[in-house]
Write the structure tokens for this entry.
Amino acid sequence: MIRPTLLLPALALCVAAAPAQQSPPELAPPKLTPPAGFANPDPEIVIGVRPALLRYDTESFAVRPASKVKLTLVNGDEMQHNLLICKPGEGVTQKVGMAALQLGAEATAKHFVPESPDVLFHTRAILPGEQDTIWFTAPAEPGDYGYVCTLPGHMFTMKGVMRVGDVPSEDLGGPLGGLRYRVFEGKWTVLPDFDGLEPADQGELSTGLIDVGVAERRADYGIRFEGALQIASAGKHTFLLNSDDGSRLYVGGRMVTEWDGTHPGGKAREGGIELSAGVHALRVDFFQAGGGQLLEVAVRGPDGTVTPLARTAATKPPEEQVGIPIAVHHQSRVLRVHVEGASSRTIAVGLHGGTNYAFDAERCCVQFGWSGAFLDVGPDRLGRGGQPCKTLGPRFAVGDLGFPLRTFDGKERPVRFAGYRNRPSHVDGTVPEFVFDWGGAEVRQAVWPAAGGIGLTYTFAVAEPGDGVRFLFDPRIVRCTSPDGLIDGGIVTIPAERAKHFTITLTPLQEGDR
């Protein structure tokens, strides 16, 4: 049985489009007792949400064919979420997510659940601090059944797999067998030697997932987790470790990666190790001094699949607990704010469908994009003196080189931002269109999500193109396509007859493409 973590009080103040501020009408009253035949479900699954990351905290679980399943979605995030289990097949969850976007004004009333034969089971769309339980009989046909959140923009990262097949009993829980923990009390600035300390508490975690919540403390404690990790395929395995405060990870008694000391969470530390197929002892040591606390552990196998080994457990200092997430629903959002990692004159734009970007009004260019939810403006509006807003989804590069246009012979002209206007869109009601003075000539640029994947499409209108224009990009970072020009290296040459209105699409290169 996978047990839920304790829900923290709902402290978040949510600012969003009108539909997200209202509790949605229910498709049916939530079931408080199991239906007939489900008094003893096998298994019971609890899936939470990783706060502000647009990720479920459980991204795979296994059930036997035709088994009785109880599934509970626990929303510890600061925005609405749902969970839809779909039929097997490549691209099915994305197809269902796109169908949910087409619901339009009916989306809230239908809990963002489209009427599709690809949807097998689903929860309601639940608000922060809520949970919803569904009971269902697992499919009789073995296979990988994807699940996804279909709130706008969430489908790109908020997904997982329900594996139906001949599953051994020990594999019905989390990835770590025989998982035990020991809690120690003390004040430290680096990890102590737990071997010489007497534990204040200890026990087992039948969930098979590391969870600092079992310490039931907020400060001045340490905890050691020890369990058995089943490795299916031999090869190099990379372990990822992120913590607030210090942590260290061992496999087979060998230290693989660490992040010791008192510090906030950040980019995960990585450590690689060659492992044979079979069972390997895993140990994670962690200590919490004060303020925020976080422990995330995962392993990436030889095939690139990442398996979380911990139930995400993150809390923040009281002064940082309030967030203000800004959502994008059926209209684009435009905010003049300071975004982390962006220039001081940033305009943040959220497009319908889960694509967003940061525009630099000083250099007149797009700096980067991100997928998923839009922005948390809490640090700016609630922080002392204002802090950068946080992007709420994974970023992608657009090969920012500054203002990208040159004359036909390759010369630069001075460029000045002249504001933006709303442009009608067949997808959104409007999208912002930026206006520039480019050496005395007006240039207008609109930005759209790239069709069929992660990236951005630019449309330019140049009032006085002369013999034509050139568009510059970084071919080491992005792939460029254009129906209007000739691409050579990092330059797209647009002839005069097309330069008055042309289109450029930029998509980030993957590691194997570089």
Summary: The mean pLDDT is 83. Helices lie at 18-21, 92-101, 378-382, 496-499.
